[in-house]
Each structure stands twice: as structure tokens, then as C-alpha cells.
Amino acid sequence: MYNIIRLSEQLSENHIIIHSSCATAEDILCEMVQSLSDELGPDVCEDISNAVLAREKVRSTGIGHNVAVPHTRTSLVKELYCVVATSENGIEFKALDGKPVSLFFLIVSPDFTVGPHLTIVSAICHLVGKNAKISTDFNKAQTPAEFMELLRAEEEKYMI
Questions:
Q1: pLDDT of 2 over the 50 cut
Q2: Residue 148 in this model has a pLDDT that exceeds 90
């Protein structure tokens, strides 16, 4: 038996974007990174945005079921950050299943760690794997607090 990390414990309501109006993958990725500017500063966020965009050019992080998990490891941060965004209309993201993405989990972690980065990506994949309509469920949230309530309830269903 093993324990899955609780994504809700890694996420702050300040880092949840509800119903983004962005229309492109690049725009939503930049919006998500910019939500970290209070903690990291605009210059650092610009460099992180460039790293995330470069990672997406190598291979899309659209994992299917309308979910994407863009991520990067960088020396620009000293701790892991998670940002979530929802999109009511969905965004073309070159996902594995060819469907638009409406739920995004951005992971930015220090380059000197691998374990926490992989653990949080695993937690997201675990939730998605247990509920294929999770993006639809989370897009019903109207506020960051409501998103967190839904996330906690979803985690309770599937925690080992």
C-alpha cells in the first residue's frame, strides 16, 4: 500500500484561475505563470513562462480527458508551485486524445529535486485516471474556494 499526495495540500486558492478567457495554449500558460508574480516577481515569471513554453514545444503535456499538466523544473524557484486554471470553452493543446483542454495543472519545481515534481504529477494523473470527466466537474466551480471543495471531495473518494 502507498499514499498518494493530496494535491489540495499543494495548492493555494491564490493560484486557481476560474474560467480563464484565454483562447490559446501560449496565453493560458503565461496567465498561469503570471499568477505567481507576487511571490516570484515579473522577471522570474517571464523566464519560467519561456521554460514552460519550450517544454510544450518538445511534447504536449495534454494527457487526455480535457486535462493538461504543463510543468518545468528550474533553478529560479526554491520550492514547488502548483497553479490550476479552468476554461469553459476549452483550448487546443495538442492533447494525446486530440480534444481541447479545459483543466490545466501547472507544476513549477526546483531543478534540484525530482521526487516532489513526479509525486505531484502522479497525484494529478491518479485523480484523472479515476474520473475521466474530472475537467467537466471542476469547470462547474465558480470560485477558487469552490474548486478546492470539489478537489478535496474528489481526493476523499480515491485516497488509498
A1: no
A2: yes
Q: What is the pTM of this model?
A: 0.91
Q: How many domains does the chain have?
A: 1
Q: What is the DSSP string of 50-87?
A: HHHHHHHHHS--EEETTEE--EEEETT-SS-EEEEEEE
Q: Which domain holds residue 93?
A: 7-158
Q: Which of 85, 104, 101, 83 is nearest to 93 (CA)?
A: 101
Instruction: Say which residue, 5 or 56, is predicted with more confidence.
Output: 56
Q: Are 53 and 26 in contact (CB under 8 A)?
A: yes
Q: Length of the chain, please? A: 160
What CATH number does residue 97 fall under? 3.40.930.10
pLDDT at 151: 92
Q: What is the DSSP letter of 132?
A: T
- The answer to whether residue 1 is domain-embedded is no
